């Protein structure tokens, strides 16, 4: 199957990652991620007092995620042009927002022996993160 040239393929994977991350945010929001996050933030604050992790409301969480996803998807036209700085930006976004995030949801669900918020969409997020990282690191032939 032909998916276009080098830049078009990167743009397609960028969009796939963005929409997968949006699905993951809906999965988290629908399964009360904020409660789990806030309880962990309080535990971390007690253990490491100088590290001020904020407590979030559902509105805070959705607002932050909506802003991030809007910015991510607004960069899609630049991703389709294959700009080097967008490819560079894709590396930490895919590694942290995709691979690490998806892996942590899966591993925490296994460790705690219960389905954590966001775990249903995590395998797809992990795949999208791997694909985006691979495309970002790929050299044009």
Offer a concise description of the structure.
With 141 residues, the chain is mainly alpha-helical. Helices cover 77% and strands 0% of the residues.
Describe the overall structure.
There is one protein chain. Helix 1 packs antiparallel against helix 6 (122-137) and helix 5 packs antiparallel against helix 6 (122-137). By secondary structure, the protein is an all-alpha fold. The mean pLDDT is 94. It has helices at 6-30, 33-47, 58-74, 76-81, 84-112, 122-137.
Outline the biggest β-sheet.
none
Strand tally, please?
0
How many helices does DSSP assign? 6
Q: Helical residue percent?
A: over 70%
Low-confidence sequence ranges: none
Shape: elongated
Mean pLDDT: 94
Instruction: Briefly note the structural class of the backbone.
Output: mainly alpha
User: What is the terminal-to-terminal distance?
Assistant: 18 Å
* SSE ordering: HHHHHH
Strand content: under 5%
Q: Tell me the Rg in angstroms.
A: 17 Å
